[in-house]
């Protein structure tokens, strides 16, 4: 599916895209992380989307989630 199309869809699709990008960048997301990401607001999800570009290891995601939830 086209990235632009996914970005224009409802929040559920945006969360799905974020999870796919995180999995590709850091490896498989844990069930707990998946649940935390599913609970993010749109603003938090957008912030995560920007932050994940700077993540170099799984602990970066863990720290981001701790500080934003």
Q: What layout of secondary structure does this protein have?
A:
Layout: H1 3-8, H2 11-26, H3 31-38, H4 42-51, H5 58-68
InterPro entries: DUF4351
Protein name: DUF4351 domain-containing protein
Pfam families: DUF4351
Structural summary, described in words:
This protein has 5 helices and no strands. The chain is globular and about 30 Å long. It has one domain. The mean pLDDT is 87. The chain has 69 residues and is mainly alpha-helical. Helix 2 (11-26) runs parallel beside helix 4. The termini are far apart. This is DUF4351 domain-containing protein. InterPro entries: DUF4351. Residues 12-65 form the DUF4351 domain.
Features:
69 residues, single chain, DUF4351 domain-containing protein, DUF4351, mainly alpha
The gist of it:
This protein is mostly helical. The protein is 74% helix and 0% strand.
What is the mean predicted local confidence, pLDDT?
87
Number of strands: 0
Number of helices: 5
Shape: globular
Strand content: under 5%
The structural domain count equals 1
Order of helices and strands: HHHHH
Estimate percent helicity: over 70%
Structural class: mainly alpha
Which runs of at least 5 residues are low in confidence (pLDDT < 50)?
none
Nearest-angstrom radius of gyration?
Answer: 11 Å
Biggest β-sheet description: none
Instruction: Tell me the distance between the termini.
Output: 30 Å
